[in-house]
């Protein structure tokens, strides 16, 4: 892996980003930063804007105001299909694997822009070491994999481009607990190997235990942010996301 | 028995034309979820390109392999160019509009080509010169013609080419990815606008070739409304095979062609069109996803 960038600019920076869908504000002035080598998580309830944040970073959604920066370069004017060439890969919500294609074809698409055959080979080997199950199922049609295996495939597919920044959208959603553990071990290993990770997760326990820093989103705004250990002890987070603290006595939601 | 085999040969020849046209419907549906009603009229324009090129080459009195090849390629290129233009100028600006707007635009485009065709080409029927001399070929009891064999041969070559492209090339794999999930394909770095344009180009080129083959099938006779019936039948073929499925379109085309030919052979020939649309109704009732289809009908 390359040495830590000398540039002071964070690897990823959102500056007061707002996004609207048909007049409804999905993001309202969200600012966040991810520094090279960090693992940052974005937690919050359904509809808080977590997925929209990731889709804005990858250009699938355009902000109405604010800006997105990647290593000092403006990102929110870049087309979605040019994002991966900048070293940013996303594992989309619901996995979004290509179900009619084989596991191998899915992986080859992850390296769609990579022309160097040796580099593709290395990325494949690395992925098969990370997820040996995928090696066993290389020729299988991806739609026939189990949910957990599809998630592994979605992550492996994203890694095929050897990204510097990996965006993960709810990797634990709808997956058997035993596979969730395997997937998170893989994510931690990816991170140890030098890839910066931005993780969106509805399982706040898991997210806060594995990441360095956290942003808590509520109805399109950043409610608070900080080091995970600090965020974890915040009463608002305890109550709303960790299911601890105040016993629900009254009817207040 | 010999009638049976004879009709089967006729049916396969006609069906391979339907299959070529059906491929365009199904491929465009794959990437845009749009029934491109203008597709059959693109085929008509392909036939007219063939007419002008073949006439210009003086192929009628002087047929040759070279002029046949040039005519075919010109029909395919002309249709492809028209397909790209329609996608670019009409469908692309409407991509974020509702599906209904897109469908209405497709119908409008179809009418524009049909009646615009009458203005530009004239409403009268024309005759595409024989770029290759038609001759009768007798194999035992089987009566074939050079043109029928060319129809079959060209269709098989084009379909094998498409099969190879879609499955064995990087761009073909990207096309399959786009037809499954446009956003995910973008995240892989696939330029989805390019792929959608390419899909129109390939589908239209196949239609352009089919235009000349339809002319072969009806002794060279073409007119600006020639796309209407073959288009409807190819559309039924695509639905029968499973819209969105390339192999479904091939299979559906052959089945419709064979069914039609048999009905015309054993029943009053006016039942020929009835069978096609009866098949459509039956498929929609019994198996709406089609024989090889994956697209489930939307529940409303």
Q: What does this 3D model show about the protein?
A:
The complex is a heterodimer of chains A (253) and B (300). In chain A, strand 4 (65-70) and strand 5 (73-74) form a beta hairpin. Chain A has helices at 50-57, 103-110, 117-130, 132-136, 147-159, 177-192, 204-210, 228-233, 235-240; strands at 12-21, 24-34, 39-44, 65-70, 73-74, 88-91, 165-169, 196-200, 213-218, 221-227. Chain A is 33% helix and 25% strand. The longest helix of chain A has 16 residues, at 177-192. In chain A, the strands form 2 sheets. Chain A has a 6-stranded mixed β-sheet, with helices on both faces. Chain B has 300 residues and is mainly alpha-helical. In chain B, strand 2 and strand 3 (142-145) form a beta hairpin. In chain B, helix 5 packs across helix 6 (170-180), helix 5 (146-168) packs antiparallel against helix 8 and helix 9 packs across helix 10. In chain B, 50% of the residues are buried. The chains are: A alpha/beta (253), B mainly alpha (300). At the A-B interface, helix 2 of A face helix 6 and helix 7 of B.
Instruction: Summarize the main sheet of chain A.
Output: 6 strands, mixed
**Overall average residue pLDDT of chain B:** 93
How do the helices and strands follow one another from N- to C-terminus of chain B? HHHHEEEHHHHEHHH
The CATH class of chain B, by name, is Mainly Alpha
Rg of chain A over CA atoms, rounded to whole Å, is 18 Å
């Amino acid at each position: 892996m390359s040495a830590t960038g000398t540039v002071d600019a964070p690897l990823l920076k959102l500056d007061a980003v707002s996004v609207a869908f048909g007049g409804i504000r999905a993001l309202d002035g969200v600012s966040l930063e991810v520094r090279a080598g960090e693992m940052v998580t974005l937690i919050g309830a359904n509809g808080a804007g977590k997925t929209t944040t990731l889709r804005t970073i990858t250009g699938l959604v355009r902000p109405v105001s604010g800006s997105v920066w990647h290593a000092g370069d403006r990102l929110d004017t870049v087309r979605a299909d040019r994002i991966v060439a900048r070293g940013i890969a996303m594992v989309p919500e619901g996995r979004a694997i290509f179900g009619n294609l084989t596991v191998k074809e899915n992986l080859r698409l992850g390296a769609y822009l990579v022309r160097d055959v040796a580099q593709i080979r290395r990325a494949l080997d690395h992925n098969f070491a990370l997820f040996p199950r995928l090696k066993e199922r290389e020729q299988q049609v991806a739609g026939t994999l189990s949910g957990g295996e599809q998630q592994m495939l979605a992550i492996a597919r994203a890694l095929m481009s050897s990204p510097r920044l990996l965006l993960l959208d709810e990797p634990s959603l709808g997956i058997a607990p035993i596979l969730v553990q395997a997937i998170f071990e893989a994510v931690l290993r990816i991170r140890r190997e030098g890839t910066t990770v931005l993780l969106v997760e509805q399982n706040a326990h898991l997210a806060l235990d594995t990441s360095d820093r956290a942003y808590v989103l509520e109805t399109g705004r950043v409610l608070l942010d900080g080091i995970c250990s600090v965020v974890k002890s915040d009463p608002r987070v305890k109550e709303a996301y960790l299911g601890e603290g105040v016993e629900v006595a009254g009817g207040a939601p | 028995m010999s009638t049976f085999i004879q009709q089967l040969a006729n049916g396969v020849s006609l069906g391979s034309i339907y299959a070529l046209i059906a491929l365009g419907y199904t491929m465009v549906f794959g990437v845009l979820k749009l029934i491109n009603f203008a597709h059959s009229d693109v085929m008509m324009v392909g036939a007219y390109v063939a007419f002008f090129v073949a006439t210009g080459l003086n192929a009628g009195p002087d047929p040759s392999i070279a002029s046949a090849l040039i005519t075919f390629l010109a029909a395919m290129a002309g249709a492809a160019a028209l397909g790209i233009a329609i996608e670019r100028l009409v469908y692309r600006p409407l991509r974020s509009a509702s599906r209904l707007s897109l469908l209405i635009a497709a119908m409008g485009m179809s009418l524009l080509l049909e009646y615009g065709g009458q203005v530009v080409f004239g409403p009268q029927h024309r005759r595409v010169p024989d770029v290759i001399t038609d001759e009768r070929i007798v194999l035992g009891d089987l009566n074939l013609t050079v043109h029928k064999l060319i129809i079959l041969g060209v269709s098989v070559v084009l379909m094998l080419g498409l099969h190879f492209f879609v499955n064995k090339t990087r761009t073909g794999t990207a096309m399959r990815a786009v037809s499954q999930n446009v956003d995910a394909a973008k995240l892989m770095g696939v330029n989805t606008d390019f792929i959608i344009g390419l899909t129109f180009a390939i589908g239209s080129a196949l239609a352009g070739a089919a235009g000349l083959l339809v002319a072969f099938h009806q002794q060279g006779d073409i007119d600006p409304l020639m796309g209407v019936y073959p288009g409807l039948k190819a559309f039924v073929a695509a639905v029968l095979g499973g819209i969105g499925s390339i192999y479904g379109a091939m299979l559906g085309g052959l089945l419709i062609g064979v069914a039609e030919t048999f009905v015309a052979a054993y029943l009053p020939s006016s039942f020929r069109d009835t069978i096609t649309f009866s098949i459509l109704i039956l498929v929609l009732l019994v198996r709406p996803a089609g024989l090889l289809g994956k697209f489930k009908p939307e529940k409303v």
